[in-house]
Each structure stands twice: as C-alpha cells, then as structure tokens.
Design a protein that fits this description.
Elements: E1 8-12, E2 18-22, E3 30-32, H1 39-49, H2 63-71, H3 74-77, H4 81-96, E4 98-100, E5 103-107, H5 118-126, H6 132-151, H7 178-187, H8 191-203, H9 207-210, E6 218-219, E7 222-226, E8 233-237, H10 240-245, H11 265-278, H12 286-299, H13 304-311, H14 316-338
Length: about 350
C-alpha cells in the first residue's frame, strides 16, 4: 500500500523496523517521521510534495524583484496556501516569458520595473486571450504587485490601473444536469473514473481536495478534511453508496493509470473532463458536478450556512446564488399554482 505514494522509499533499521524517506530528483532527501498513514507522516509527505527549488535572488529594481517582494509581503503570505501556490506559479510564468517571442533571451523578469508601461501589462494579459479567465487572473495579480511597488515607492504609479479585463463567458463552468451524471455512470462502472464520480456526486469536493483524499480522512463514518483552497474543516457524511465505492487499499482514493496519485490538480481536472467526454458529455468538469450538487441541495431546502458547511465556503455570498435561484424557482411555481383555477 505504501508504494502507491510517489517518491516514497524506505530503509531497514537494525531492529527490523523501517524508516521512510521522500526522494525526488533535484530535491533534498527528507526523512518522514511518524507511522505511515498518521497525520504527522502525511503532513511531512505533503510538505515534500509542495517543495520548490530556491532560485537566485533577482536584481533589485527589476520586475522579478518586485514580484519577490510581493511574495514576501503580508498581502501574499496571509492568503490560503492553495492561493499562494497558484499565484506563485502564475508569477513565475510571467517573469520567465520573453518580452518578444523572437528574442527569447530577453525576459520580462529582467526588465526594470520603473521602465514597464501599461503596454507591457496588456501583452501579459493578451497572451492568455485564448483563456480569458487566466488573462484576468494575471491582471489581478499584477495589480497587487504594482500596488505594493507604488506604496513602497519602487515605481511612480500602478501601471495596471485602467487596464481592461478580458471578456469572459457568463456563468463560469457549466452546471451538470441529472442526465449528464446518469450518462457518466452508465459509461463508467468501475475503476478510477467510477470512484471519482461517486466522490463528486456525494460530496461535491473541489479537485484540489479530491486529489489527496484517502483512508486517513475516513473517521467514524465521515469524510473529515481541511479544504486545500479555503482551509475550512469539512466533516461530510459518507452514504452507503459512497462507502461501498471507496477503495480500501490505497493511501489516496484516486490513482492514475500508472498506479500513483495524480501529480497535480490540473491533471486530475483534465482527466475528469475526459471521462465525461468519453460518456458523450461535453463541456462538463468536476466543478460542474460541484455546482450540480449545490443546486440540488438548495432546491431541496438547504440554507446558505448548510451549503457553506457542505462545500467548505467561508462567505455566505458563495452559497447565496444557489439559494436565491432555488427560491425564485419555488416562488414562480407557487405563483403559477395560484393561477391554475383562473
């Protein structure tokens, strides 16, 4: 069972016991303390998975340098761990991009921050024009970086102010339908696709949580975990259908075709979308199933705070649209019923 964990190795002690290590090329060998499956052991393992190699300090005053200062500021450090990791990836990508695709040696990161103009910001935004949500995420992060830089007087103005966001389709991810879910399970009756579908159907967890959930999270008939994105404790009941589907011999419930945990949230998200396409369902994602479950619960009378407890939301405004939509539907039906005899 332990060897389903990627990068895990063990060594024998003289007394017959074992000690465990995290071993990955380019990363220091790290001893994992505690018993396998224990909270201490998994905390150390996940910390090793999240390790990133240190980079050389950027030249003071460059775009890369102000990015480093932002990532060392309270504005960045107080955000949830998942948010920090996602933003760090976006920032690294921007600093390593060439100013001109025909001059790959000249990177954005090496450009003097004071010399950057709104046109630079538009270039970084527009390079994600095929994915407007990603382009707007770049704008959001750049706005925070240059806000700090202006406050610290590293640049004269926040050059991001006034840059327009890219147009995005309304509504975000599509919401799955009962028919979509039925087609999925008609196609996938076993294996990782079936297990993933069962977990999503009965919990609506985010992909970032779906990827790492496993046996250590099953406690007294509940799925107990702290959400990666919002760091909210969720304690979700495990109905019989889900209990029967959960694997009993894996550290994590979901394994890739290689028999190992999925390496990233993106990889798992893409795989779930692929499983839906294999079932003849297009444009549906894991998040679509999350929205479907929230919609169904609201239609059955769940309150904002009940939805918050179920989906790991911190703010009622995240649950409110589902409750309001369900209430509108209910009121419209009641109004229509009043006219039935007219």
């Amino acid at each position: 069972m332990l060897f389903n964990l990627e990068h895990l190795t063990s060594r024998d002690n003289s007394d017959g016991t074992k000690r465990y290590y995290f071993r990955r090329r380019g990363q220091p060998l790290t001893r994992l303390h505690g018993e396998p499956l224990s909270a201490e052991f998994m905390t150390g393992y996940r910390k090793c998975l999240d390790w990133t190699a240190p980079h050389a300090a950027a030249t003071e005053g460059t775009f890369a340098w102000i990015c480093d200062q932002y990532m060392d500021s309270p504005a960045f450090k107080t955000k949830a761990k998942a948010t920090r990791e996602a933003r760090r990836r976006v920032i690294k990508t921007m600093t390593e991009e060439p100013l001109d695709p025909n001059q790959p040696a000249e990177k954005f990161g090496a450009e003097r921050a004071k010399a950057m103009t709104p046109e630079y910001i538009e270039i970084l935004r527009d390079r994600k024009s095929d994915n407007p949500h990603a382009g707007n995420e770049r704008l959001k992060i750049l706005g925070q970086i240059f806000k700090l830089a202006k406050t610290k007087k590293w640049v004269p103005v926040n050059i991001v102010i006034g840059t327009e966001r890219l147009e995005t389709p309304k509504g975000g991810h599509n919401t799955a339908t009962d028919d979509d879910v039925a087609k999925y399970f008609a196609k996938h009756t076993s294996g990782a696709a079936w297990v993933a579908g069962m977990i999503l159907k009965h919990t609506g967890v985010r992909v970032s949580d779906l990827r790492i959930l496993g046996l250590p999270n099953v406690k007294k008939g509940r799925l107990v975990f702290e959400t990666v994105k919002t760091e909210v404790l969720c304690e979700l009941p495990i109905p019989p259908e889900l209990a029967a589907a959960l694997p009993r011999d894996n550290m994590t419930f979901l394994l890739s075709d290689a028999g190992k945990p999925f390496e990233s949230d993106k990889a798992l998200s893409q795989r779930v979308s692929k499983w839906f396409r294999q079932a003849g369902v297009k444009d549906i994602t894991a998040h679509s199933v999350r929205k479907w479950r929230a919609t169904k619960m609201a239609e059955n009378g769940a309150t904002e705070y009940q939805l918050m407890a179920s989906f790991g939301w911190k703010d009622p405004k995240e649950a409110r649209p589902y409750v309001e939509a369900a209430n509108r539907q209910k009121m419209a039906q009641e109004a229509s019923d009043k006219m039935a005899g007219v």
